[in-house]
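Why Myo-inositol 2-dehydrogenase/D-chiro-inositol 1-dehydrogenase? Reviewers of the renewal asked for a concrete example.
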Amino acid sequence: MRIGLAGAGRIGAFHARTLAALDFVDELVVTDADLGAAKTLADELGADVAPDTEALLASGVDGFVIAAATPAHAPLLRQSIAAGVPTFCEKPVASTLAETIGLADLVASTGVQVHVGFQRRFDAGYRRARAAVESGELGFIHSIRANTHDQAPPHASYVPTSGGIFRDCNVHDFDILRFVTGREVASVYATGANKGADFFSAAGDVDTAGALLTLDDGTIALISSTRYNGAGHDVRMEVHGEKGTIAVGLDHSLAMRSAEEGVDFPRGPQKWSFMERFLPAYQAELTAFAEVVRGERTSPCTVRDALEASRIAEACELSRAERRPVALFEIKGI
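Here is what the prediction returned.
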């Protein structure tokens, strides 16, 4: 299989290395706005280089992976859809909600398969939690806790274009909440604060945030995020039900320590980045994309799914800004 990839930055290089190690990839062709970066990555992996996306899509690729900077996602996705090439696109698919809605409409009208990169859907723990909910093992679900706590903040230059902490970090929690529960969010109440670097406030963002979500069946979900979790990268979910509770991410890599005497949990070592935490999920995600390319399955995470997660993030940003509860019907959808 010949796979094209746009983007030779941090996540693009990570995906390229993952793809190069997978058995189904026979050829990899890379492009980037910085052709020097593309060539360096291609030389490392023994891949080909295309001068631009148009040339890459015309080179006979079976599938296309978009891992460029966020502002490039929507234009690249429109190019690949026009070319009829099955595409994997990192989140977010677009910089604005309106543009995401337009892309969802375009995909629906063309039938081109687009797989959006919410890798937690392929993590073994989250899939086990989903199975526990679906089977009724936990009885009715009454509350959920989920968090995305980064070990250290991103570079200051990243924050102004990140979309804010809810769109950048917690959008993964919002997507996996829908995936695990099979429910939609009805309303949100969100807040945030800054205690760290000034560049968050300068960009109108926060470095720590929390949200109370009410699902359409009355389930309560508590969501948190921070850019400052010095103990390590901490991504977890607890699903609390009538008959039991199940937790994702509760293992010896947990980025905290017990205050109780005689407790040796967790023993470590911790995880320090999302790439380390979710490497098996990323591999499974791209393997699933190969099945999409071969026509063996439809997209396991559609642009419509990405839109619904984005709507929750938009509602949280509005709630934080206006300091009020926001119903999801206030946020435009399809």
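The chain has a mean pLDDT of 96. This is the kind of structural detail the renewal will allow us to pursue systematically.
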